[in-house]
Fold each of these.
Amino acid sequence: MDHIIGQSRAIDVLQSSLRSGRVPHAFIFHGPAGVGKFTTALGFARVMLCHEPANDLSGNVAACGACESCKLIPDRPGAAASSAHPDLHLVVKELALYSEDRQTRERKLSNIPLAVLEQHVLQPVSRSALLRHNKVVVVDEAELIDARGQNLLLKTLEEPPAGTYVVLVTSSEHELLPTIRSRCQRVAFLPLPEETIRAWAEEHAHAWSPQSRAWLTDFAGGSLGRAALAVEYDLGRWAQRVLPAIDAAAQGKYPSDLGGAMGAMMDEFAKSWVDRHEKASKDAANKLGASLMWAVITHYARRKMQTLAAKVKPDDPVAAESSLEPWAGVIDAVNDAEREIDANVQMSLASDHLVSRLFRGMTGRV
Ligand SMILES: [Zn+2]
């Protein structure tokens, strides 16, 4: 028997609809990035496609693991994503690379193009299931379908053909049209427990120092995806380089080479991102690198504020204010830098500005 792997609360919701025998035709799996939404969707698809799903001893419905359908979907985590099952349709934005339409193939991957939606969702939904059982469509990052595409999808969600199940996976549910949301059963995914991230870090970041691993666990904020990204791109090194310089700035020492160092690290990130993601745009990679750098810094400032706030005596609000102020200044400086990057100011310039702003904000000096 093959069980759905994923978050227990979300799985409870799915299991109760499976047990009741009344499975809604459309779902939204929503919650933070990197907490297992897509993996759970694949596990759910496997059960829905299985020809002989059965209850296990605890009453959960599981895929048999042996039927024609199950054999086509590997149950290793991640492996299902490359399944050749004819009635499992996975939509990820990278599919644009394989579109029948040349223009779609060649464009930058910042959304799920209509052509992809047409080819991988609307057409398969209107055909009958090739294995004469159910069909499942899973759309990852569903918020990347634009309003026109969502309106097309709406028709499918309103009157799904029998045996058709659609799962929209998203970490930005508010970007889905209200009309889409109201037609789907919503399943919430929460940040993963710290224990889970810690155990993962022990295994995947064993070369890191215990101190860096502790940073990683905290920085991940319950997202395994974020932890994995931090390990793949060695963000622990960013923290080691940048955070002590910010501490020194709090002591009044101007971090004169910090802007250049940050710029270089973000640039290195963007280059290796582009190397590892065929067709990724350098511009998008730059922005991702910058947003990670800002995340490293604001995460640290927030932690500092929490620690300081816990030490403050409740009868002295003025002292409280003044001890937190420098760190609030760091967050403000990062927000400014973020706006600059959005306005296409060069990264190296934005990092220089950030450093002088955060120094000014922390010390009141120019
Ligand atoms: Zn089966």
Amino acid sequence: MGSSSSTMFLEIFVKYLHFICVFGVVSAVVSEHLLLKSELSRKEISRLSRIDAVYGLSALVLLGAGLALWFVVGKPASYYSHNWVFHLKLTLFAIVGLLSIYPTVFFIKQRKGDAHQMIQVPKGVILCIRMELLILTIMPFLAVLMAKGIGYFGN
Ligand code: HEM
């Protein structure tokens, strides 16, 4: 009994962590979207870079919690490994990660120097953030589908 209730607690904790990190990722990307303009001071870029660090950290812990839900707690790993909706969710997560590279590199490169100097923001930076937001709205839908077993193709 003791070990099964601690396993249950671990599962609840990992699911909670998964949710909190989704909030972290989404709130960081929404904040970046709201703060981005076609021209920004280095000071503003430095602030965006700190928000971007919140995104990066949340995404890493989200990945860790997701891997734990896949391989350690909850349903058996094959429940997810043999589900194409889950693989689509993973692919979208990877695409969001790739899309975030360009904005991250821009923020890091441009944050240092004269705090009041104005910098032109490339259109691609804003476009990447917008595409991240779009993809992020699809992911919870895929998650609830796969949790129900929709997309399972057996072994
Ligand atoms: C932005 C990224 C992500 C979002 C928005 C997201 C969203 C969600 C949501 C809403 C659930 C709850 C589903 C439910 O209980 O009905 C969930 C569960 C889950 N997620 Fe994610 N997730 C993300 C990333 C990941 C990653 C990267 C992985 C794997 C490495 C992962 C693996 C899982 C697993 C295994 C579950 C458990 C599903 C179940 O209860 O059967 N997630 N996710």
Amino acid sequence: MNFNPDLCRNESEVESKLLVGYLLPKLGYSPDTWHQEVRFGKIRLDFLAFVQKIPFKLDAKSPLGLVIEAKHPRKNLDKHIYQIRNYLTSLNIRYGLLTNGKELRIYQQKAGEVHLVFQCAGKDIDDRLPDIIQLIGRDFLQQQLLSPANTPSPLSPPLQTSQVLASTPSPALSMKTIAIYHNKGGVGKTTVSTNLAAAFSHKGYRTLLIDLDSQANSTFATGLIKFQFEEDDHLKDRNIYHAIASSDTNFIPDLVRESSYFNTPEIDVIPAHINLIKYQDPLNKMMASRTRLLTKLKRVENNYDLVIIDTPPSRDIYAEAALITADYLIIPSDLKPFANQGLPTVKEFITTINESRETFGKQPLEVLGVLASKISTNARYLEHSFPKQRAVISERYEMSLLESVIYDRTALSACFNQTVIVGDIEYPNPQSIFKYAETNRNAAQISALEFEVLADEILSKIGLIK
Ligand SMILES: Nc1ncnc2c1ncn2[C@@H]1O[C@H](COP(=O)(O)OP(=O)(O)OP(=O)(O)O)[C@@H](O)[C@H]1O
Ligand SMILES: [Mg+2]
């Protein structure tokens, strides 16, 4: 496949068509060796590629290989040299690639000095690929950086993993509610809801997770379903149904549970229950059942910064209540045909919900975008099919896509399926991806990082990162 610079009409096309779709695979970087929108304190890198695959560990001895900065094709690269210089020297990164699609430059940093070492026009990238690979191809860079002769420069800042992607909550927050919804089942709604709640909590935001799905998978995932016998079911009489069923009792603090083992710090959870199914008909008949959660959440708006609502894969009363309550919507999707074919129905649903919201003076639901989730890390798929699948969402379905991607990682199902044996009984003991990554490094840390990146993208979209 040849690269045609005319295909890149804006910065995001430079990122998707030149970098993700073409150059990173050609240079030998598989998806688990690069990250998009990586944040180090105040610095935000468009792309960071690692020479070491896993374990993902940043310290003075693990040099960072390559930072990539993409610009709009009309932007003059000369104006961004200072930016690359700053990244390379302050984070001790060896190479910086700066491109607007029309031109490509590579800068090298050694002992604090930054020099231009390669330059070519966008249309010549194909022909010059061997030179580019020799400089910043993953194998070549690995040899350069990981050879014993390569000692870290005295400038190396000792980076801790916890410093990566650090973001600080702004002082005066108003509570924001985000629903995670798609009418297609199994696309990762619960996985995203629970781990996103964990990511926000990690960043210091006071987070409440609400399970509005009778399957109660978020309730399970946060460790609230450990009982083995029906008589031990402590969720039956105090769950999200009770918030929706009454107006003057069962307020949020009465229903909240702490997910003590799932994540550190803990998050508050309002559980669901299988009984939600049988209460659906009576609730359906009452208009008020759609707005009670919203009203009750207003009473605790000083207690939480963020509320995440996990929803069922349907268009029932619970999904309605979720979308009426939320300020924002994220639509996880594996981008496969069935999930896509559900999108027009999601859009119609949003239109209907917005009509109801208007009647009581609530702003329309703000769709943050479709979130590519459970995405295969197969390099050929990512090179050929994934960019096309992403394009379909905006071109055919006219919906925006979040930049972040949640890849298909076995660690994400493994953390959900953790158990503990007490006596001779095995109890579920699920963990967030962050907790799981503390003891299972490797791919789990990469997945945790992907959730941090997603959390940062959302925080910046909803104005919670300064
Ligand atoms: N990114 C991922 N990587 C690996 N496995 C995943 C990922 N996302 C989800 N899964 C797995 O796929 C299955 C379905 O995921 P999940 O329950 O999150 O989907 P859902 O949209 O909430 O489903 P439902 O519509 O039934 O509520 C689960 O077994 C989960 O562990
Ligand atoms: Mg679910």
